[in-house]
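Translate sequence into structure tokens.
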Amino acid sequence: MPILNQPFQGQLGNVLIDKIENYDYSSLTIFSAFAKNSGVLRLKSSLEKFKKSTGHIKAFIGIDLDGTSYEALLNLFSLCDELYVIHSENISTTYHSKIYLLENATCAWCAIGSNNLTGGGLWTNFESTSIQEYSLPTQKSELDNIYSIINKYSDDSYICSTKIESINDINTLLDSNYINKEVSQKITTIKKRTIEKANQKKNHLFGSEKVSIPISITKERPRKLFSKAKTTTDVDFIVDLPTTTPAFTNEQFWFEMRKSTGGSRNILDLSKLGQIVEGSVIGTPYEYTDPHRMYGGVKFFEIDPEDTTREKDITINYLGKDYFPSTIKFAPNNGSWRIQLKGKPTDGTDELSKFGNRGDFVFKILVFEKITPDYYVLSLLDNSELDNIKSLSRVWGKNGSGAASKAYGML
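Result follows.
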């Protein structure tokens, strides 16, 4: 029975992508206590290909302990053929399963362990997973316990499970405070960690494991995933996967929008350089030769600030939909970089610029999370949260020295 000890012997997210894309499975069932965009969107391309090839996706997601976000459920609803939310009103009972099951008529692949459907759970956390393959139908009975719980959670009469039939069902969970938006969860987490660090003694008793979420997944043809370890004695199996380029883990930047510019009120100014007000960029991609300054927001979108001839189109995931293209370019008339928040979704509904026309972006704080260099998640905070988000940022600065300068920072 192979055991995958993440991150030392591979990352379950990479293994799942390989299995979903390169093997001829017809159904995927996911059980996960937590779901965040950091995990869902890094699997999204693979899941879309799987569905396009007539694969069936079913997910049972928990909403306890503020571990699942509103946006993650929105994205899962568009990706899954069947989506269920599991929750018990008994505060001493938590839905905590983590199972990934792939099947076709002749075989099954199953990972059971501690990995949630999050960036941390699938890539950066210390996690352990038991992985087993089954020959079907000969060994089908060995999966009976999983089939049994699938049937239980799918049963309309089971009071701790509900099938998500529409986005309105997810909005009801949000309005009833069963789930929160990711940016609110992020702020709560940072506040908690700030308090914990303040109470912790200054002499560190442990070191730090450096693990990053991959920004791109190498696509290869089917290959053997597990092989006997030759140089290690305390490992059952190691994962034979290609090296990927790491990102600065969980990279999130926020920008003060104010009135916005452009007829559609959908243009966000991105600074080339900024003046640091609080915090430090040492050890990050935003470190500049002058220690009092840092690279601006355009660097977050992986554009050389000096290359003013460059234009870049990115995809923005907003409220569970992908919009493409939003264009980043240099505006010579005012000497600044900017991003045009626009682009069409695939379902034919309103373009992203329409939200600007309605005034959704003005006097807001725009928070972007990098999934890949071409794919970002957008969340909004009210401008009244500006002082709060400044205090919780690793670093923040202003894109100029005048009174009209706007703030931006890294969470």
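Note: Residues 216-248 have pLDDT under 50 and may be disordered.
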